[in-house]
Amino acid sequence: MLDDQIIVLDQQHIWHPYASMDNPPPAYIVASASGVHLKLRDGRYLLDGMSSWWCTIHGYNHPRLNAALQQQMQAMSHVMFGGLTHEPAVELAVRLANMTPAGLDKLFFSDSGSVAVEVAIKIAIQYWHAVGQPQKNRLLALRHGYHGDTFGAMAVCDPVTGMHQLFRDTLPQHLFVPAPPAGFERACTTMDLAPLAQLLEQHQHELAALILEPIVQGAGGMRFYSPQWLRQAADLCREHHVLLIADEIATGFGRSGALFACNHADISPDIMCLGKAITGGTISFAATLTHGHIASTISNGTAGCLMHGPTFMGNPLACSVALASLELLQSNNWQQQVNDISEWLNIELSPAQYCDYVKHVRVLGAIGVIELYQPVNLARIQAMFVASGIWVRPFGRLVYLMPPYIISKEELEQLCRLLLQVLASYHKSSHHVSPMS
Ligand SMILES: *Cc1c(COP(=O)(O)O)cnc(C)c1O
Questions:
Q1: Nearest to 66 by CA among 92, 98, 20, 32
Q2: What is the pLDDT of residues 357-382, one digit of tens each?
């Protein structure tokens, strides 16, 4: 197909994320991707600052990940998980159980992050049902949280910034607590925890679980908060008999500077969700982990089992490539990679704090955020990023980088330099342009 044809047919037939069909936003045609570069059909290369939404931690088209897929393909690409099992699933389960916080050794494999969250919610509700407290069936969530786009997950996203206000009347009504005060380094006071403590006190009789993104609130605002807050929140949950669900779909596998963000606070949540980077960005896959006593309580409840079982559960290709990704994480020394990126991001992004259109610059692990005062016009700024040879996709007032861990110092410096240049020229030329135009 010719490039024009692809674009026309794409616009005629395909929804893109949060996009209009009648007035479709521009899309660029990717021909291939390798390492930290996307190659467009017109021959241009873009230096990737997004890791395709936190996923491609080892870069694109990695030979070891490809080899794992090819090898598994020779045996089987898929087989149903009802009544059957296979070595890649078992090996992956053992590996994940060993690397995640203590006790999380019962795993449910599903095919996307949102489904992993649905499963986590089901586990929490089924648990309280099984212990004879079925009235404990509501969730408590943080404002500015994001947990996915399916109905159960939407219901625990921030009711305002969560993009799902439209569905408010059809969603189960859960409870929300103000987001923790910003700042990874912040020393927490009892005041900081007071709203959570109060809600738990008032509603513990009807609450199944608190669900949160540990340390980094991603799509709901790219906010960082303190491990002390998280640790005290975990204590409060335990005291009030409310389960804790840690949604590590964005933070898992090193992104925040710890292998799992829960490790910053040295906690083991009752339930943990993993996704995104789990296969190194190769195939959609996710996992929900919980503790033995929860799994066994559910298994001894009236249902006798966990009521979930997706068609592509435990897909062998995904399990094999996830194993290869975990091996790479270790052999590449992810901690060193992420520490280096953190240091470079701090140096390279800090000049932005002096720009009058910049509200705040923050870095944690391999995440760099430039928060602006005004939302950007996405189509316009994206065209400018592409013209300068980088792939960055802001949302609203947030321009952020989460590059693949394999990015070199020179590449990261270039990425940041070009990013700041584009921001400067965008703001120089946009005085009379409203964000919506
Ligand atoms: C992306 C994300 C999800 C949803 O995952 P999908 O694979 O898009 O369904 C859930 N929670 C968090 C924290 C995420 O970042």
A1: 32
A2: 999 999 999 999 999 999 999 999 99
Mean pLDDT of the chain: 96
Q: Please, what is the Cα angle at 189 between 185 and 194, to 5 degrees?
A: 125
Residue type, 281: G
Concerning whether 276 is annotated as a catalytic residue, the answer is yes
Higher pLDDT, 163 or 316: 316
The two tokens of residue 59 are 């870069």
Residue 284 main-chain phi, psi, to 5 deg: -60, 125
pLDDT higher than 80, residue 292:
yes
The atom number, within ligand 1, closest to the CA of 219 reads 15
Per-residue model confidence as pLDDT tens digits over 100-138: 999 999 999 999 999 999 999 999 999 999 999 999 999
Per-domain residue ranges of the chain? 3-58+333-430, 64-331
Q: Which CATH number fits domain 3-58+333-430: 3.90.1150.10, 3.40.50.920, 3.40.50.1390, 3.50.50.60?
A: 3.90.1150.10
- pLDDT confidence tier of residue 330, bands split at 50, 70 and 90: very high
Tokens of 248: 């590590």
Query: What's the rounded Cα separation, in Å, for the pair 391 and 30?
Result: 11
Distance 149 CA to ligand 1 centre (A): 8
User: Is 64-331 a domain of CATH 3.40.50.80?
Assistant: no
* Ligand 1 site-directed mutation target among 50, 147, 224, 279, most atoms within 8 Å of CB: 147
- Phi, psi for 60 (deg, rounded to 5): -85, 155
Contact 116, 286 (CB under 8 A): yes
Q: Ligand 1 within 6 A of 68 CB?
A: no
Nearest CA to ligand 1 atom 15: 250
CA of 220 to the centre of ligand 1 (A): 11
